[in-house]
Protein 1
Amino acid sequence: MSPLRQRSDAPVITRKGGTNCNHSCYDIFSETITGSYMNLRQLEILRAVIRHRTTVAAADELALSQPAISNALKAMEAQAGFALFERVNNRLFPTAEAMALYKESEAIFALHAKLENRVRDLRECRSGHLSIVATPPLAYSIIPPALSGFLRRRQQTRVFFDVRRYEGIIDGVLSRVAELGFALGLSHHPGIAHEVVHTGEMVCVLPPKHPLAERPIISASDLVGLPFIGLERGTRLGEAVRESFAQAGAPFQPTVEVRYCNTACVLAAAGVGAAVVDPFSPRQGGSHDLIVRPFAPKTVAVAYMRWSEAEPLSRLAKTFLNEVRQASGLLGRDGC
């Protein structure tokens, strides 16, 4: 049997109160030292005694009893075959051999501390890499506050964040370029899981001093004959707005057609006309000078988060999803 597989013959070291202190993780360090066996816990005791020069202080640091420290030193000296300390006036002075072990063990304990820190970071999701993609309405509304809170508590984490069209979200998630994707609307794709982030309703945005500005609710019929900014045909939201106009029996006659709701908001703020957009876009940047009113008939806008079913989500991704859920809840209280 190789030395790495053999267990130490040293007496069991116990904490104050009798709890067994020899941990199995130390067994991998039980390779021979000068022809005997000395494990990581024994080296830890040796180092503490060298620092404090008394067994009492070393026992306090390691939460062990003083007799346990004394017995461990005797066992180590018996195993090593040479003295580790000179005893002078109730104080322990390390021998040259003990100091050599102290110096040689520095690298071991530095590595051990590094591994412990890494385990803690992984457990608390403080480090790692996360890739996310989102369509513009969510990229500029829900994601920023969620990302801010997420990174504020995890400064070692690195994030890749891209803004794409709906098709780019699906491609990014399927190809694993992004672990998480966020978009409005849902179409089922094999291999992609989803969860509702937020449910809201389409709204009507108006430029300041618009003729309909005083109305509490804007209907599709109200917009007929007025300058109107429509969403592009073939897009999910564009088709949803067209269906709402058809449901109301109102002709859909846009003065300008655009692909993105944010573009419609910019044009509306500039006085080009009214627009029906998702509930997130009017909030983007907070700089649009817009009047926002509920739109009738009710047109639901649902935000989804998506991820690949090919692999389980990382702890980091799950933690970020919780941040997104919280940000979504705040939007709901704001009436979005």
Note: The two ends are 68 Å apart (CA to CA).
Protein 2
Amino acid sequence: MKSVNYTPEMEQAITAASPLNIAKARKLADKLGRKPRSVIAKAISMGLPYEAAKPTRKDGSAIARKAELVSAIEKSLSAGAGSLVGLEKATRSALDTLLSEIA
């Protein structure tokens, strides 16, 4: 016989907290005596939505792809899409500096 990891009451508490994110998962984990990753895994296995945290840099700013920075530079220069091919290979700091100087 298989042991039950989550009681129906625990599942109901997880469902009530839906949509789940890391902060809600931590609170539920403390309340249910489980680890946050376990609560998240259970919510996903139940088919509930989980809002994953967006990756950020060490300084807390949002991560932007180089292609997005090049698109922003193209818009600032009123250049056509794809007119700055190869600029994606520049360093992120160079692209950030260029965008801040022309914007």
Note: The chain has two domains: 8-45, 66-102.
Protein 3
Amino acid sequence: MGRLQKTLLLLTVAAIPAAALCYLAGLPRPDAPVEAAALAAASQPCFTAGPVTYRMAAPGMAAPDFRVKIGDADPELRIALVDRVDDADFALVDDGDAAGACMSAGRIKTVQLVGEASAADVTVSLSREGTGAELKLFVYSARFSHDAAAALFAAMRLDQRASKLAQFR
């Protein structure tokens, strides 16, 4: 099974529970009218992984769940940006339609990109060279910048590791 097939299978497996949750929770369809608060939330890029939706925090948000710094100074995660999905370990692809994108029946955790001088939960290094990268990321999106995609992935990875550690305590 090729890398593209594995990636598509993983995305499908992640999407089915999320769709079932939306259906069972009676959430509005993406084409149904939504309120202003829902539209504001949908304008921030997000990614759902299992029961958790990770959403980029609105500018100026006081207390995001995760703060991510993009920089080369002592990164905890090194990500290489690739131009072909076949070369990627993780792919983030969307159709550009933001309506209803961040509606979730599960938990929503916010992610904020912070500057060099700010404290961060995780620092991520982004590069075009794969040398030393722990992960190869492919992004094809009208809504996600490379920085936002890397920040969402880093927050998801950090949160899932913390959850696994908590299970063993």
Note: DSSP finds three helices and eight strands in the chain.
